[in-house]
Amino acid sequence: MLVISERINGLFAAVGRAIDARDEKFIQQHAVQQMECGAQALDLNVGPGRDDGPAAMEWLVRTVQEVSDLPLCIDTPGIKTMTAGVKACRNKLIINSTTAEINKMQALFPLAREHDADVICLTMDERGVPNDSESRAEMAMLMMTTAMEHEIMPDRLLLDPLVMPIKAAQDQAMKVIKAMQLFQTLNDPAPRTVVGLSNVSNGAKERSILNRTFLAMLMGAGLGAAIVDVQDAELMAIIKAGELLKAEKLYCDDFLRA
Q1: Which pLDDT does position 258 carry in this prediction?
Q2: 3-class DSSP state for residue 53?
Q3: Among 64, 151, 179, 241, which is 20 to 30 Å from 187 by CA?
Q4: Any idea what DSSP says for residue 228?
């Protein structure tokens, strides 16, 4: 499973301050820490509501790739900020993200093709997140079809069923699981999938146990990638155990340290 670190994000106060101050040392140390904890890709988000979004994202991408050759996941809803980050990136690239809104797909799929990027596809449109699994699958199919019209094959997409906070939308957890299963039927080979895991526990008290348990459930449903807190050692251990149980990795007695 592709493990994407969530922590280089301006929503975290210390990271936001470092981006504001253009503190290269802090950001680079933070990136190295994520790699040491097992990150296989780094999600980069400058935070919401910035007047300097494009400039901040360009700086963040250039700063991180000075110390890391991991894939960079450029995370922003803003087209201008996304474009700035994509153009600055020389590492392998993931665009995070498009939705099923026509204008976003028409802007981001050509950008992805031009820069040889994978694309995270959020199963929502201008009406918001669907309440049911089937509508999520329909939106996923629409995005796959539209991507192919732009000569982007399904294997370059990561379908995101959109995890919702358990505290506010308890019925959605199992609908996300079902959507994940439906996604597997949309193409052969099955499309890749991804979630922003920590969303499930947003606003809850016992965040760690919710994140860890839901991750195991999602892995059983076919999850292929996740944006997670790689500094949660127990969560990372669950990923390693899950990969063994799904026969994605060979067993060895020291698998937790492998």
Answers
A1: 79
A2: helix
A3: 241
A4: E
